[in-house]
UniProtKB/TrEMBL annotation:
Organism: Halocatena pleomorpha
Pfam families assigned: AAA_31
Name of the molecule in the record: ParA family protein
UniProt-listed InterPro entries: AAA_dom, DNA_Partitioning_ATPase, P-loop_NTPase
Residue stretches in coiled coil: none
Domain AAA: 7-169
Amino acid sequence: MESEPRAVAVNVLKGGFGKSTISINLARELAERNGRALLVDLDDNGHATFNLGYRGRFEGDNHVEEILIDGRDPRKAIVSIGGGLDLLPSHEDLEGVETDLQSAMASSQRLDRNVVNPLLDNVYEHIVVDTPANRGKLNDNALYATQNLIVPLRPESGWESGITQTNKRLIQEARQYFDLDLLALVPTDLSERLDQDTRDRNLLEAINKRDELAGFVPNFARLTQADWDDIDNRTFDDNLPGIRHRGSIDKAHRAQQPLRDFDPDCDQLRCFDELAAIVEQGGVVR
């Protein structure tokens, strides 16, 4: 697969699954690898915006409305994070934008027409969109504009319904109207043992052993039957799979920095680096 300018949405129809953490650090790694990347925060909770130090932009003039509804130049609202990463912040009244989009002409194409199309390749090699956890026009805009999707999965009750609903209500519906590629399923915030019946093990077994899911599992979360045998025999000596829970990730949020800039020695950067490669290549490569 060849690397080319590409936009991607980080999306799952369930809150608390690490969308913002993945979005921030994926965008930062894409900037590190390619020189410049843009993170667009369309999530109404504004976690990515807050975690990068721009809570103030969440209030005041509704720049998202001005861009998506009025056609304002998005570059006037974009802020620099550092290391080649820029941010188009979220806003507290995305609900108002959602309402306005309901009656707008070409209502699902505004992000593509006003942000992604003019900026992708011309200004940024890659654009990452952090999406809302609910269906709506903003989510439709994110999918149409990027046509590439990364789905985070957290080992807690409801992860299976989250991916089922995301597939049924987002991916399958979107594919009736345009091409939408699922790039990766990303297990995140793992911390439990794998040689026992834990939520971490259940999640990793489910995505690695199902033929319809296994091809979308990144190499950092891939486990073969031989790996499971080694885990059960307690002879597994490779990196633990998935994005692991690390204090540095939480501390980076509190410091309002991407992980790379807060702790460049964190072992989980390899996971975000592979996610960046998956975006560049348009899919998982074994």
